[in-house]
Amino acid sequence: MALVLEARNLVRDYNVGGSLFGAGRVVHAVKNLSFSLEQGKTLAIVGESGSGKSTLARILTLIDRQTAGELFLDGEPVDIVKTGVTKAMRRKVQIVFQNPYGSLNPRQKIGDVLMEPLLLNTDMPASERRDLAMQMLKKVGLQPEHFNRYPHMFSGGQRQRIAIARAIILRPSLLVLDEPVSALDLSVQAQILNLLADLQDEFGLTYVFISHDLSVVRYIADEVMVMYLGEAVEYGTREKLFSNPEHPYTRALFAATPKADVESIKARLALKAMQAQA
To answer: Residue 245: how many CB atoms within 10 A of its CB?
Structure first.
């Protein structure tokens, strides 16, 4: 399979603080990340808050630039400092955010929300834009009568369906999903995950799925990269990582995941006792 995404030694530093009386400091948000992703596959990025997941998402979606390293989309090098973000680049990569309501313009009808990427990035006539938007509504499980409604008239799960439809209407090479189900009820989470799996099969979509929920990751990922303080501490197939996590931080994440069985409860109690003695 062709490589859709490749990162080589990505680095992102931020200069923070500083004043007339003292120098600032450098925060290393992403440190020498290297990975690749084939078409039709899902790479899950896992880690706690502050691990660098969202910074990496901003780099992959061309919102932010890397300080160093190389990024390739469909085999082509990407450097937004030199070229800016072109229409061709924007068609290749899209993002779905955690909060669907915050990512939708409350004053825009859903039909306009879906047609806007086509208006900005293609020369498609208005009638074709409308037809494609209608088709995409159906693909994500909504109805034609929803076309002229506003975001506040939908549930959280429906709004996330709209956000997904908007993201894939350009048929991107890469879709970055930043905690796309964490704000939803469990039953709705399952529906959205199933929808993402169906769309991936139908369109051959390639996902980078950012999450802190290991149960979700286990369901959707082909490969998993565990991040800690900006670094990739473990990277491999889902089967390998879940059956035999090697890094202590990965094992700690598994231990911190709530489970209801007796053995898991005993293991957590033993871990707490060990920490107390330390």
So the answer is: 19
Q: Residue 13 corresponds to which amino acid?
A: D
Phi then psi for residue 191, to 5 deg, are: -65, -45
Q: What pLDDT score does 276 carry?
A: 66
Alpha-carbon distances of 178 from 145, 213, 278, rounded to whole Å: 29, 12, 36
- pTM (two decimals): 0.87
Tell me the CATH number of domain 40-59+79-245, given options 3.90.1170.50, 3.40.50.300, 3.90.1150.10, 2.60.120.560: 3.40.50.300
pLDDT in tens, 52-92: 999 999 999 999 999 999 999 999 999 898 888 888 888 99
pLDDT in tens, 116-163: 999 999 999 999 999 999 999 999 999 999 999 999 999 999 999 999
CA 257 vs CA 90, 121, 252, 260: distances in Å: 36, 42, 9, 10
